[in-house]
Write a structure and sequence with these properties.
The protein is an alpha+beta fold and about 450 residues long. The chain contains 16 helices and 15 strands. The longest helix has 25 residues.
Length: about 450
């Protein structure tokens, strides 16, 4: 045992020395530590109930119309009453005027069917924003206006219809599977007064041309992070950011303040979420070797795991990470969104929030990383093997969106490398914002070292 311990110490020192040499000559600018922000306490059980039944969107599709169009049985999450047999990504509620309506909920982006299980908190990597839904919203409005006795239904749907009709033409992506949350936020604030949240039919801010894709991060990572979003610019009270979806239909800041009283509970629920456990056997000796390599080569940025876990909360500058710059650079080339937020209602009260831009990205915690493909902030890399070996990253790749298959060995989505962007199911890394460049740190490892690291990552 003593000899084994000595061997491990010596190996660790050698690996650390190898890594230190690499970092000292390649790192460029220094990482930036993110200070922790005080968060409100809450009730996780109440947060879950509000998440799947709550009225954080108080305008939506009339219940009868929704049931007529969405007539397939839904995953009701054990819900009763109006929400029984409603798809998990919608909440059925009573609007302020007493009408029954159905509105999209947070699980539109933050839940996914994966490997035969439904997992709340897993980012939805199958979203489809390749179509303009403005026409559907206007058709609903026309339908409600044409029928007699629909006045209250139209009133309950009006805020939802006006938002969807206004923003949908500017949310169309080139490919399936990417998220447009950043674009959605910028569009919504462009139509709202920062102090009152009152809606304006015309835009109050210029809207950038680019739609920057992201991959939805797993919710269970948030408990370790001192800032939200890939570039770590969400500082202060996390609940204020979580409730920002309310901007889709909010009437004014009085309504926003009421919704805000529930999101400390929602945050408590998110903090309670564990990462999924790898479902197959793990090669323990290989994983132990991988842990040594990981802790020598990766833990400086991504932290350590297990009994003595530590997450460093570091922002990695652009000249170090070298991944696609469009997401963080948009805060500098189009600062109007940051300025709007930092002058808005969100910064008021005893638990304010603010945005602090940074030219780079946060090094994320890696809990459950084996299950969260595709990788990088824009979802441009299909599996862990190509994340750790940039030479394997496909320029064009596609996956089966109807019958998705996950490769638990690599791990990552089973994909087909393409020679061109054939259709909307092909990820095209040549597009602006879709690049798979950067995060080259794994290139310094041998194939055997990479295999060991991947085996260890399955244990997280």
């Amino acid at each position: 045992n003593d000899m084994k311990s000595l061997f491990i110490i010596i190996l660790s020192v050698l690996l650390c020395s190898k890594f230190s040499f690499y970092i000292d000559h390649k790192k460029g600018s220094d990482p930036v530590f993110i200070e922790a922000s005080k968060q409100r306490n809450g009730d996780a059980k109440a947060g879950y109930t509000y998440l799947i039944e709550g009225d954080y969107l108080k305008s939506g599709i009339p219940f009868s119309f929704f049931k007529m169009v969405f007539n397939k049985p839904g995953d009701d999450l054990g819900r009763n009453g109006l929400n029984q047999n409603i798809p998990y990504s919608f909440n059925a509620i009573i609007a302020p005027n007493g009408e029954k309506i159905v509105s999209p909920n947070c699980l539109q982006c933050h839940a996914q069917e994966f490997n035969g299980k439904f997992i709340i908190g897993m980012g939805n990597s199958f979203s489809d924003y390749t179509n303009n839904n403005a026409g559907t919203a206007l058709l609903l409005e026309k339908f409600l206006k044409s029928g007699t006795g629909n006045e209250k239904k139209l009133e309950a749907a009006r805020n939802f219809i006006q938002s969807v009709a206004a923003i949908s033409p500017y949310l169309v992506t080139n490919t399936k599977g990417v998220n447009v949350a950043d674009r959605l936020a910028a569009l919504l604030v462009a139509h709202r007064d920062p102090k009152t949240f009152k809606w304006s039919d015309s835009t109050l801010l210029p809207i950038p041309d680019e739609i920057i894709p992201t991959d939805v991060p797993a919710w269970w990572l948030l408990k370790k992070k001192n800032a939200m979003f890939y570039n770590g610019f969400g500082r202060g009270d996390f609940g204020r950011f979580l409730m920002a979806s309310n901007l889709l239909t909010v009437t004014d800041t009085t309504e926003a303040a009421e919704v805000d009283t529930h999101f400390n509970d929602v945050l408590a629920y998110i903090y309670s979420l564990p990462p999924p456990v790898y479902p197959q056997a793990i090669n323990k000796p290989l994983a132990e070797r991988g842990q040594l390599i990981f802790e020598a080569s990766c833990s400086e940025c991504h932290g350590t795991y297990g009994n003595n876990s530590f997450f460093p909360n570091l922002l990695i500058p652009e000249d170090v990470i070298q991944t696609d710059s469009m997401l963080y650079s948009s805060n500098y080339s189009s600062p109007q969104f940051v300025n709007w937020f930092n002058q808005s209602w969100f910064t008021t009260g005893d638990h304010p929030a603010k945005l602090v831009p940074f030219k780079g990205y946060i090094a994320s915690p890696l809990d459950g990383i084996w299950a969260t493909a595709p990788y990088l902030h824009n979802g441009s890399v299909p599996d862990l093997e190509s994340l750790l070996n940039s030479r394997l990253r496909p320029k064009y790749w596609s996956r089966d969106f109807k019958n998705p298959q996950y490769n638990l060995d690599t791990p990552g989505w089973k994909f087909q490398e393409e020679t061109s962007a054939k259709n909307k199911e092909t990820y095209n890394t040549t597009l602006k914002g879709y690049s798979n460049a950067g995060h080259y740190f794994g290139d310094n490892l041998t194939d055997d070292e990479r295999k060991a690291v991947i085996e260890y990552l399955k244990t997280l």
